[in-house]
Amino acid sequence: MSAPGQNYLNASTGLRSWLLTTDHKRIGILYAVAVTTFFLLGGIFALLVRTELAAPGETIMGPDTYNQAFTLHGVVMVFLVIIPAIPGILGNFVLPIQIGAKDVAFPRLNLFSWYIFIIGALLALSGWLVIGQVDTGWTFYTPYSSDGSTSVLWLTTAVFIAGFASILTGLNFIVTVHKMRAPGMTWNRLPLFVWAIYATAIVQVLATPVIGITMVLLFLERLMQIGIFDPALGGDPVLFQHFFWFYSHPAVYIMILPAMGIISDLMGTFSRQQVSGYTFIALSSVAIAFLGFLVWGHHMFVAGQSAISSIIFSMLTFLIGIPTGIKVFNWVATMYKGSVSLKTPMLYALMFLFLFTIGGLTGIMVGVLAVDVHLHDTYFIVAHFHYVMMGGALIGLIGGLHYWWPKITGRLYNETLGRIAAVLVFIGFNLTFFTQFIMGSRGMPRRYHDYAGLLEQYPEFTALNLASTAGSYILALGLFMILFYALLSLIRGRKAPANPWGAVTLEWTHTDSIPELHNFEKVPLVTRGPYDFHLADDVFGGRDAVQGTT
Amino acid sequence: MTFTWLMTSLADATQYRAQPSPRMSESSGTLKHYFVSSEQQFDAAKMGMWLFLVTEVLLFSGMFVAYAVYRAWYPEVFALSSELLDWRLGGLNTLVLLASSFTVALSIHFIQKNEKEKTVVLLLLTLLCAAAFMVVKYFEYTGKWSHGIFPGAGFAPHDGYEAYNIAYAPQFFSIYFVMTGIHGVHVLVGMGIFVWIVSRVVRGHFSAAYYTPVELAGLYWHLVDIIWIFLFPLLYLI
After folding, report:
1. pLDDT at position B33, please?
2. Which of A116, A323, A335, B209 is 20 to 30 A from A163, comparing alpha carbons?
3. What average pLDDT does chain A have?
4. A200 near A258, Cβ under 8 Å?
5. A317: β partners
6. What's CA B60's distance to the chain center, in Å?
């Protein structure tokens, strides 16, 4: 059908062909460019925050500027980076190919989602630059947000709009998975990445409208003083927290579930083995998506919620540990007696396993009522959610980007540089955030620009903060190194074969080195599961062929 | 509400009886390249719309929760304040919306039978009902405003409404204006959609073989109706 040598990258050229594309693969790249830019921005603010804390006293900024810096870091990283990243980039690029479809169910809606995401992002950043800085933290708690800078109006509008991008992406993926699977692609042959994106999409569709209406009500509170959330007018700030966390806790699973899907694929491919407990991993994603809706109150143990609610929320929080544990044990079991190959993506998968387990277990710790009263609003919490959000979600994303890079670009990257960067990221990350666990457990509070007053009792805070800041620089160095060799690979990387990893899912076995415009010449007929290495004659030439060569 | 559900399921039943033939739709050029058949395309579109309606329900659910919380905290204030809303006007609007759900369901029925004139007439009737709803709403709103019943900071009842100048009455009216206001925005959006659909029916874009947008617009309109059916008793009657 298509001319030889033609693929989705060279089928049409020019800026217009990219900005008006409805091809899911190109939209994935549009997301990649946008998210990388915002990640850079959010990262700069993280480094500014860490630099301020490098030494006691005022280092580079005063308390107000500091509040604005961590607010912008949080808003950008949560709403503009982690939430859209994996579904937007890899979900878009990989999911339709993995299920044997030529595109998502609604390609124009898909492009539209990207544009509203960009509009939301620009609104947030321009509001911040032009109108004034928000210092509420990314959670917008009232009364911080109901008085203070009117820039809150811009930011709430931005979150509302960006939320629609998330809803529409989720909606698109749910319909795509239900209606667009190739013949023979039954539900129990879906790659686990697809299962994870599917579970994520359910959360996106069900939870995001609630943050939408919360932002509308907060907007009206700030604009017209409708008195729902502002205590000065008879409103209830705890009600705001309920509304906010009813979305924002499930949103945590919007962030981590897709990364778990990537890790499942990586574990299978780089252990050259059937993923252990396929059905359990697939359904545990759905279980996490479901349970995620029932635990939001654990953010409010000290906010004046009733004791009985707190006890119930605490108990439900523990339950999340079950499906999560199922995943972790199955990943470990997948490697057992497999032919484990420590390529760069697998290094990130192992890193995920290590960091996410720390993040997850400390999550159960802070879900314990009595422990949380002590640890609430300390650096222990900061360390916990960075282990999950960065050590989990972003490390998963980076691993996935390495894994699918040859398919997306048709080029290989330098494996040695990849491994060095992975080691730098690992060291930098742990130095940054493990020290924060120690400080937090000793009472170092979050969201303060200074800790000089604590030094008499805890002199070690100076050294620990300095180590944490040094770690953040090492982490940044590792991340810049990835950016460097990625660009190098684009310019002069070796051409990638169609299946450099010997994986057996459709994007590797049934497309060219760079997929053609409509993915497949013919819609593939699926006859085996996503990790049936022993049945993948098309990849390895069959068992007989292998024996024949020895 | 049972009525609307009945109409929706009626629309469903008739649609399957008049199942579009794939060949017809493929030849008419409405099948996108990434779908295998027009059944697949139709099912996908319809599922997408249902999911969108779920998000709409959740969007409103936030406001219903705010209503429930404040009603549970201040039941006397809410009971007193709701007396200010005219149940006759609310009831009239309920009837108007129910009628519009009926006409839109019938319009889908007729497009499935290729009877385009009847489809257009019924869609125009739907539009008329929607406009009538907004006109009634306009009189209700301005009636409140003229007595100083505003949402939020402007709340200052006067001209005989002084009795409502009590704590937490502003919360009731804020919730009333926000909920009915956002519902009203949905009615306006629906009117825009119907204008677009009518113009496309007139231009001959739809037939028994391809009428997906008509059906989806109908689904959306039923949702707008259902939400009002919850708003009316909660705000006006109890």
Report:
1. 87
2. A323
3. 93
4. yes
5. none
6. 12
Residue type, A193: F
pTM: 0.93
Domain assignment of residue B32, yes or no:
no
- The total domain count for chain B is 1
The pLDDT value recorded for residue B10 is: 44
CB contact under 8 A, B34 and A172: no
The pair phi, psi for residue A299, each rounded to 5°, is -85, -5
Record: contact A217-B178, CB cut-off 8 A:
yes
Query: Taking the alpha carbons of A91, A92, A94, A97 in that order, is the dihedral positive or negative?
Result: positive
Distance (Å, rounded) from C-alpha A247 to C-alpha A204?
Answer: 9
* Chain A residues touching residue B40 (CB < 8 angstroms): 179-180
* H helical segments located in A442-530: 460-492, 506-509
The answer as to whether B161 is a domain residue is yes
Q: What's the one-letter identity of residue A424?
A: L
Q: What ipTM score was computed for the predicted complex, to two decimals?
A: 0.91
User: Which residue in A has a C-alpha nearest to residue B70's C-alpha?
Assistant: A228
Count up the domains in chain A and report the number: 1
Helix, strand, coil content of chain A in percent (nearest 5): 70, 0, 30
Is B146 within the bounds of a domain? yes
Q: Which of helix, strand or coil describes residue B35? A: coil
Question: How close A55 comes to chain B (CA, Å)?
Answer: 44
In chain A (550 residues long), the average pLDDT of successive 10-residue segments reads 77 93 96 97 96 95 92 94 97 97 96 97 86 84 84 90 96 97 96 97 96 95 93 93 96 96 97 95 96 95 92 96 96 95 97 97 95 95 97 97 97 97 98 97 94 94 97 98 97 94 94 93 92 83 45
Amino acid in position B167: A
What is chain A's length?
A: 550
C-alpha B53/C-alpha B4 separation (Å) is 15
- The minimal CB distance from A206 to the residues B52, B58, B65 is found for B58
User: What are the beta bridge partners of residue A411?
Assistant: A495
What CATH number does residue B12 fall under?
Answer: 1.20.120.80
A residues 94-133 near B, CB within 8 Å? 101-107, 109
DSSP A523: P
Structure confidence at residue B170 (pLDDT): 94
Report the residue from B55, B167, B178 with minimal CB separation from A226. B178
Supply A519's token pair.
């993915």
> What pLDDT is stored for residue B27 in this prediction?
47
Contact A226 B151 (CB under 8 A): yes
